[in-house]
Amino acid sequence: MNKMDHQEVSGAVGEAFDVDALAARIRAWGLGFGFGEVGITGTELPGAEAGLQAWLAAGFHGEMDYMAKHGLRRCRPAELVPGTLRVITARLDYWPESADADAALNDPERAYISRYALGRDYHKVLRLRLKKLAERIAEEVPHGFRVFTDSAPVTEVALATESGIGWRGKHTLLISREAGSFFFLGEIFTDLPLPVDPPVSDHCGDCTACITVCPTQAIVAPYKLDARRCISYLTIELHGAIPAEFRPLIGNRVYGCDDCQLVCPWNRFAQRTAEADFAVRNGLDAASLVELFAWTADDFESRMPGSPIYRIGHERWLRNLAVGLGNAPSMPAVLGALQARAEDPSELVREHVAWALAQHADRSPPSA
Question: Quaternary structure per UniProt (predicted)?
């Protein structure tokens, strides 16, 4: 555990404090720091290793080499952080109050951005909140700890499932009976011998709504996602050209996709976020494709710092928007926006603009 986060535990910690009472206080402190729920689990993740190996062997991770880089350490908390006895998992809701997902998806002139990305990048928000909770625990009982968000090799859904926060849905995301699935997950690895929470059972039943609704049929079987087909992967993780076969299916989704969550019956219980950092920025919940496509590199650099979207850069942002414009109605504003970037300095952008213009040409009625 790194020096900044580590505090030595002296004596027999099991005899120094009431672990049940401490666990109850940890949950209360977590709620006080804004988390929707806090759970505790051990370091054993039954089935996680076999599942990860099969997923990687099938090539479903695509270009996400980091998924294979750390091997099975991802499924072994005590090996990833030596000395870890327990993992405290926490849920932080992100659904913004003002963002009407259906209105954006149903308007082909608008850009649809995954609801988690409309505000500030969650990594810093979540990590800071987890660190505060870990430090509050240390005020009560010194412990060695490290905090993680999804930027580290941690099997978050498996840990959250084992800690009783929810169950893995057929779309592979975590679902909570109390809060649906529109939330972030984070972890505190600790050397405290806390009591663990029991996992909850699967409540998806016979429902296959998420599988059916996926525009690219990326959920190839219940609980099995081929990321190479997933719109979130194609618009965020993929660095090169988006395969032509998927472009018409992407519609106006220019950063991520929420379809499998929006259709999930459990999200009628989704919690609106109370976190100001997750409020909509730059009018991204109602922006048009044409408007965003007009942003210069300087515009992107000045407006997107602190946003999750910043990580893909201006070039891939334009790539995604060009696909959206290719799927938009053949209006003068749309065609003009595309033509204005037909000679863009980026080969990647030019290729997607050419595809988009060809889409409109194919839809145009033949001249007399």
Answer: Monomer.
